[in-house]
Amino acid sequence: MARLKADENLKDPATGKPLPQGVLYRGPKQYRARKLVHGHRVTRTFENARLARAWLEEASVKIREGRAVDDRALDGMVLRALIERYRDDCMAHRERDRQGDKFAPATVVKRLNLLASIFQHAMSEWDVPLTQNPASGRLVKRPAGADRKRNRRLEESATVNEGPDGPLSEYDRLLAVVTSESHPDDVWFVRWAIEQATRRGEAAMLRWRDVDFDRKTISVARPKNDKHREELGPEIRPLMPGTLALLKNKCSAMTEQPDPDAPIFDIGGEDAFSVRYGRAVRKAGLTNLTFHDLRHEATSRLARLFPNPMDLCRVTGHRDLKSLDRYYQPIMTQLANDAAERARLLGIIYGDADE
C-alpha cells in the first residue's frame, strides 16, 4: 500500500501551493525528491520545490528513454581514489615522469589523455556510473601546438671543435664526449640508437640472447600496454648493417664470450644514463638534442635504404605510417641529390639540370 504524505507535507510552506508527488518538505530550503530507479530509491535535496519537480521530470524522461543510471556509487567518490586505483591496477612498474611547475603543450595532452584513460577504464571495468568521459577530447579541447613534431637532426658539419682533419660534425662531437672510461658502453649505446632506431627502453632491455646473428634479427619486448603482448610474444626486427657490425665489433672487444642473459649495453639505470647524456650534450656544445632525437635521426637515415615505408616500420617498430611520419625528417638537398643520382642510373637526362 502506497505511503501517504502527512498533512503538513501536502503544501509548500513557502508558496502555499501543493507539493509535487514525490517531494517532501524537510525544513527551510530542504525539499527532498524521491524516485525509484532500477529498483533503487534515489533521493536528492533541493532549495525549492521547483528544482525538485524539475529533477523528477528529468529522471522520468531518462527512465522512459533507458538513459537512467544508478549513480549512488559516485557519492563520496573522489578523483584521487580513481587515479590511485588506476596507478596500482594498470600502471604498476611503469616509469614515472617528473612533474614540473610548467608544462609544454605536449605534456598537457599526455596528462589529459591519461585522465581520459582513467575515466574510461573506471566506466568500462569498474562500473563507475559516469554517462560520459569528462576528460575526453570531445569535451576538453587539447592545447594548440601539442602535435608539432620535432625536426632536430645531427648536422653534417660545424665550424667549431675543429679536429686534425677540419671541422667535426655533430655526430663526431657527440661520440667524442660520450666515450668514457667510467662508462664505456655509453658510446656503444649512442651509436646503436643512431643506427637501429630503437627506443631507449627497448635498447636498454636487450640481452645477448635476443640477438640472432645468423638470421640478422633482434627480439624486442613489446610494451606493457600492448594488448597483443602475451598473444604474439616479442617483436622480431631486422638488424641493420650498422648495428650488425657494431655488435660484432663489441663482441671482438670482449675478453670472453658474452653471457646470453647479460645486457648488451651495460649503462646502469636509464635515468642515470639520461643524466650522463645530458651532460655530454652540453659538453659537446650541442643544443636542443634529446636522446629520443637520435631515433628521429636513425629513422631518417634508414629511410634511404627502404623505398617501401612499410618495410621501414618493421625496423623502427612504428605501428602505422602516421606515426612513422613524425620521425622521418629528410634533408631536402639530400632528396634532390638522391633523385639526380637515380635519374643518372636510369639514363634520364634533364638537359642542364646538373650544371
Automatic annotation (TrEMBL):
Compositionally biased spans, kind Basic and acidic residues: 1-11, 144-156
UniProt-listed PROSITE patterns: TYR_RECOMBINASE
Biological processes per GO annotation: DNA integration; DNA recombination
Listed name of the protein: Phage DNA recombinase
GO molecular function terms attached to this record: DNA binding
Organism, scientific name: Acidomonas methanolica NBRC 104435
Alphabetical UniProt keywords: DNA integration, DNA recombination
Region (Disordered): 1-21, 132-165
UniProt-listed CDD domains: INT_Rci_Hp1_C
InterPro entries associated with the record: DNA_brk_join_enz, Integrase-like_cat_sf, Integrase_catalytic, Tyrosine_recombinase_XerCD
Pfam families according to UniProt: Phage_integrase (PF00589)
Lineage: Bacteria, Pseudomonadati, Pseudomonadota, Alphaproteobacteria, Acetobacterales
Domain Tyr recombinase: start-end pairs: 157-341
